[in-house]
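Q: Could you fold this chain for me?
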Amino acid sequence: MTITVDSFAAIEEEFNAYVGAIVSATMVTVDAKDRPRTRVLIPVWEVVDGQPLGWLATFKTRVKAAHIAGNPYTSFSYWEPRNNSVAVDAHAEWVDDVDVKAHVWRLYRETSPRGAGYNLGAFWHSPSDPRLHVLRLTPWRVQVIRGVDLRSRIWKPAAKQ
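A: Sure. Below is the predicted structure, expressed as structure tokens.
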């Protein structure tokens, strides 16, 4: 059974538990011919003003940059063998602000949610490293599925008045 909730708090605990345990997500983008491309990455997440917000520290490859420029909507899928899963549909945008990069660096180091993240120093020297790029991920739909009984809950932000 699937239910839809308009408060992220209703699924936040389960979201954090699954993402923190699974860690790696498959990111999907599409090219100019609407063909999908997947890659496995590790985004980090936080809640700001009651809404989920994701961040992806990444290399800005030509393919990824072209896909995001052509269609900024992406999906992230987390899954583990007990069938617990999370699907996040989000709008992605590049952020170059060094203060934001420092915030993201901290989220990765502290792991957000608990368990998700890694030492960005393995790939970049610091938040000001010009090779470090950050995608801001603004979810418009999040689904959590509990594997034991396939109970599904979907969060969508409340419609703006």
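A (continued): The first strand starts at residue 2 and ends at 5.
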